[in-house]
Give the backbone structure.
Amino acid sequence: MTKTITDVICPFCGTLCDDVEVVVSDDGKKLLEVANACVIGTEKFLHSQEPDRVTRPRLRQEDGSWKTVSYEEAADYTAKMLAKAKKPLMYGWSSTNCEAQSIGNEIAEIAKSCCDNTAAVCHGTTLIAVQDIGLPSCTLGEIKNRADRVIFWGCNPAHAHPRHMSRYSIFPRGFFTGKGQMSRKMVVVDPRCTDTAKMADVHLQIQQGHDYELLDALRVALKGEWLPDSVAGIPAEKIREVADIMKSGRFGIIFFGMGVTQSLSKNHNIDAAIALTKDLNEHTKFSIMPMRGHYNVTGSGEVFAWQFGFPYSVDLTRGFARYNPGDSSSVDLLTRGEVDAMFTIGSDPGAHFPISAVKGIAKVDSVCIDPHMTPTSGVSKLHVPVAFNGVECGGNCYRMDNVPIDCRKVVEPPEGMLTDQEFLTMVLDRLKKLKGVA
Amino acid sequence: MANSISVNLISGRTIQQGVAIESGKEKPSYRTACGIIEMDPSDLKKLGAWKSTNVKVTSDYGSVVVKAVEATQGPHPGVAFIPMGPWANSVINPNTYSTGMPTFKGTPVKIEVAINEPVLLGIELVQKNCGVIVG
């Protein structure tokens, strides 16, 4: 007999779908089927069942080969590395739960380390912009029930957040949006004709990297002032048409993604997008929301902000929290070669940092805590595989609209495997002893 | 037809990239999903390359060999796309301009045909670039 578990939370993207169904074997040790999740989420659940999974920590030897070690030895290595280092970097946190993040912060405080999460290469610039001018936002539930103008700017949910449009933003029939997609106008701004853009009522195929100009042109159009013939490759009449679409709605939302955060101008693009949202509120109700990537990157920002006062790029090396992106941010620290120990958890900087920064990881003592084999584990000295959070252990996570949702454990991890929380607690105990902290 | 062409490189997620990272970055499927460059048909023509030809992509910051494929989300002449991952990150502009964020989108690159050069696996590529000894 098998058991079906309903209302399971999907630990892949910031949409944090909460309607997944999982079929497990009677003894709860095997995960057999996944329903309702997108293809990526399904793969995440099923990958936990692979027979070739690494189940014990591995330490790299002089000759480059791996030697299997116990979790105790791995915790010893990690604690000693952090105790010895002058400027360790503890990076990642976005694919683990808030409980583990909080233990990690305690470790970081004792080790006087730099702490950062994956916002560093994702929505970090958004956080800077939010600190500049604020963020008029809302929840995904409000969007489902109210939004009749939906703008996707520099994001491609058809690929990156596959169920976002069907659960919240475009297709659902909400309280005031009873006709589903028929009751919404959809505008996509993207330099490529993406699969999201193909669905849109209007696609503005913007010249790459000219988002700031187009956002400002929309503000000008809203005010009915003069515009040049074309801005960022978009004709003036098209800009005026989109401005009219936006202000004629009852409730609008701008979703934005890496197209604005990672292109030149960076945080200033988002400043302009938030200013546009503010201007639109003179005509109708408008909100703006970043499309967060990892399922708990938002939670990591919350926990950092709650415990240290800043949402990412925190530097504790002086014994108190400082925040200065460009100086205390991971990519810059690694590229400048300032880090003398690297601790990675729940993320893959090896694959997603520029190669010049990855070289900084390979040069120093390093620990990678990740259930998968990744480029980061490939350049790290110690690889600690752990249970999949959200599949093999539960814990608190934050959806992209800052709504906390408790992930659920649906299946047992392979025998003897620890969770992030358990391993971090072992490291914390050892570090306290090494540093003489009670 | 030219020996090399210059385009504006962007990177980002694709659903195939998402599935590949969750099914194992050590597998060849990760290379199939992300060790590619999506090019507009007009750019492929300018370069004189067939679809699925290996090409060398070079920027001021590095170079990498990937497979040239026809744009799946085009047309976008003058813009090329490598899905996020170690292949893209071998060539993108790492400057953060004091924001902490590298410039993942908008790196000028040169593309040339490299029919005899192999596309490396993801972990292998990073290890090679970082000079990690593998046993």
